[in-house]
């Protein structure tokens, strides 16, 4: 199967001493959704920013669709990587309508794109609405299709649910998975909630202190763990997730 992304030995330190990301190696098949899970400061955002080209690695290689976009000799600028990054706070332009937000940066097919993408998120009636009149969930869906309007090969989302309340989250998870699968793009997203990963992703990467502790399919995530530390982290993730569910009931 085609690989959308191949990463080899990727490292990044901000202060020259401690690695924010340390010799990370993984790859992902085209069309898959991967969740990057880890506690605060484990290097999740750094990994996404390196893939997007917003940060320069100290060493290692990144290939997107078989093409090197980052290594010791080459750093391709973000706009040439065919990667779309959705920010945590959605970052919609408040003075532009939903339609104008979606077509911002598009030169052609504006009308058709707005129609197609608003249909996809079942918000056909909101083309002329302003972001302030939208619910958090609507804002998030608009932020995602605004990025999809540019036809990225790979969609990156940094903590897409951190600004949404728990009830809204569970509703949106399935919807996001459906949207992304329908469009057929590949996606990597960050979360610290195991439920997000299980509901949305095909694969999971567990990060700790800048290192990948585990990279598996969702179904294999808690099977055959040979390492006590990983076992402890996964059991903590599970009990945190359970606690969230209890709060909802
Ligand atoms: P996460 O997204 O998992 O919370 P980050 O990738 O943001 O983790 O951070 C990983 C480590 O790098 C942390 O120790 C953090 O303090 C450090 N770090 C992140 N961004 C910067 C920066 N711009 N300057 C200095 N240190 C940073
Ligand atoms: Mg982060």
List keywords for this structure.
binds magnesium ion, 249 residues, 10 strands, globular, alpha/beta, 7 helices
What does this structure look like?
The chain is α/β, with parallel strands linked by helices. It is 34% helix and 26% strand. The protein is built from seven helices and ten strands. It has a six-stranded mixed sheet, with helices on both faces. Strands 2-1-4-5 form a four-stranded antiparallel sheet, covered by helices on one side. Helix 5 (166-183) links the parallel strand 7 (154-157) and strand 8 (186-191). Helix 4 (136-148) runs parallel beside helix 5 (166-183). The longest helix is centred in the last third of the chain and has 21 residues, at 228-248. The protein is globular, with a radius of gyration of 18 Å. The model has no long low-confidence stretch (mean pLDDT 92). Bound molecules: adenosine-5'-diphosphate (ADP) and magnesium ion (MG). Magnesium ion binds next to helix 1.
Write the layout of secondary structure elements.
Blueprint: E1 3-13, E2 19-29, E3 33-37, H1 44-52, E4 59-64, E5 67-70, E6 83-86, H2 98-103, H3 110-120, H4 136-148, E7 154-157, H5 166-183, E8 186-191, H6 194-200, E9 203-208, E10 211-217, H7 228-248
Parallel strand pairs: 3-8, 3-9, 6-7, 7-8
Antiparallel strand pairs: 1-2, 1-4, 4-5, 9-10
Helix pairs in contact: 4-5
The structure holds adenosine-5'-diphosphate and magnesium ion.
């Amino acid at each position: 199967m085609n690989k959308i992304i191949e990463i080899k030995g990727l490292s990044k330190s901000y202060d020259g001493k401690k690695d924010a990301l340390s010799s990370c190696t993984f790859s992902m098949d085209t069309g898959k959704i991967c969740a990057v899970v880890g506690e605060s400061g484990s290097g999740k955002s750094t990994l996404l920013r390196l893939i997007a080209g917003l940060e320069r690695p100290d060493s290692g290689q990144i290939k997107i669709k078989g093409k090197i976009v980052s290594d010791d000799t080459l750093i391709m600028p973000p706009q040439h990587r065919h990667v779309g990054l959705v920010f945590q706070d959605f970052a919609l332009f408040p003075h532009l309508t939903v339609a104008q937000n979606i077509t911002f940066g598009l030169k052609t097919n504006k009308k058709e794109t707005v129609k197609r993408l608003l249909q996809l998120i079942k918000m056909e009636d909101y083309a002329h609405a302003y972001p302030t009149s939208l619910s958090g969930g609507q804002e998030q869906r608009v932020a995602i299709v605004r990025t999809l309007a540019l036809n990225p090969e790979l969609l990156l989302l940094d903590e897409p649910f951190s600004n949404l309340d728990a009830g809204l989250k569970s509703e949106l998870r399935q919807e996001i998975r459906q949207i992304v699968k329908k469009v057929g793009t590949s996606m990597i997203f960050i979360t610290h909630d195991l439920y997000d990963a299980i509901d949305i992703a095909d694969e999971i990467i567990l990060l700790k202190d800048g290192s990948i502790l585990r990279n598996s399919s969702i179904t294999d995530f808690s099977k055959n763990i040979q390492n006590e530390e990983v076992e402890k982290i996964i059991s903590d993730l599970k009990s945190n997730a359970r606690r969230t569910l209890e709060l909802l009931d």
